UniProtKB/TrEMBL annotation:
UniProt KW keywords: Hydrolase
This protein's name: Nucleotidase
Swiss-Prot/TrEMBL GO biological process terms: deoxyribonucleotide catabolic process
Entry's EC annotation: 3.1.3.-
Family: Belongs to the 5'(3')-deoxyribonucleotidase family.
Cited InterPro entries: 5'(3')-deoxyribonucleotidase (IPR010708), 5_3-deoxyribonucleotidase-like (IPR052419), HAD-like_sf (IPR036412), HAD_sf (IPR023214), Nucleotidase_putative (IPR009206)
Catalytic residue positions: D7, D9
Highest taxon, organism lineage: Bacteria
Species assigned in the record: Bacillus pumilus (strain SAFR-032)
Gene3D superfamilies tied to this protein: HAD superfamily/HAD-like (3.40.50.1000)
Single GO MF descriptor: 5'-nucleotidase activity
């Protein structure tokens, strides 16, 4: 049984979740493909203060209405029988109720959910003794892979195209992630 650490936004939820809200608020017509950096302040030409003001206002609704990523629920339903599913998210603590409600509404299984309130997930990864982490943020993936010395499955996106090291595995979807986990399990079994 593996202890799987799983990011929520852009990993379990669709990567383009924020796009319609940003387009409406900032009167633009961006697509996910336009988002070539995780930091949206440059793309929107606004300050960090303006961005976080916008986030504080819109986050609850966005998190509540987020759609699951394609095949995420089905794959996680399969994985829950063999592994522990521990969600470690950058969401802030005051979004705990909305987060749990979303999981219940979409019938997505969890063994634990930890809202760390920022992109420093390493402590939570170590606390939960995570074996493999699922992430969409390049910086998080790199830090976790290096510092925790575990494989990180990075969900491919226009905003995470920087180089990766050999502990990071790029996948395009949950089907590929599932396939990698199955092969990894087989390698571990053969090693014993």
């Amino acid at each position: 049984m593996l202890r799987l650490g799983i990011d929520i936004d852009g990993t379990v939820t669709a990567q383009d979740t924020f796009v319609p809200y940003l387009n409406e608020s900032f009167q633009c017509a961006m697509t996910l493909e336009d988002m070539t950096e995780y930091d949206l302040t440059k793309l929107l030409n606004i300050s960090h203060e303006e961005f976080w003001g916008w986030m504080n206002q819109h986050e609850p609704l966005i998190y509540k209405q987020a759609k699951p990523a394609k095949d995420a629920k089905e794959i996680l339903d399969q994985m829950k029988h063999q592994h522990r599913l521990i969600y470690i998210t950058a969401r802030r603590q005051h979004h705990a109720d909305i987060t749990y409600e979303w999981f219940h509404k979409h019938h997505v299984h969890y063994d634990d959910i930890e809202l760390v309130g920022g992109h420093h997930k390493l402590e939570a990864v170590q606390k939960h003794e995570i074996d493999v982490f699922f992430e969409d943020h390049h910086g998080n993936a790199t830090m976790i892979a290096k510092e925790a010395d575990i494989p990180v499955i990075l969900f491919n996106s226009p905003y995470n195209q920087m180089p990766i090291d050999d502990r990071i595995i790029r996948v395009n979807n949950w089907q590929e992630a599932s396939q990698w986990i199955k092969q990894y399990e087989q390698r571990l079994e053969t090693a014993y």
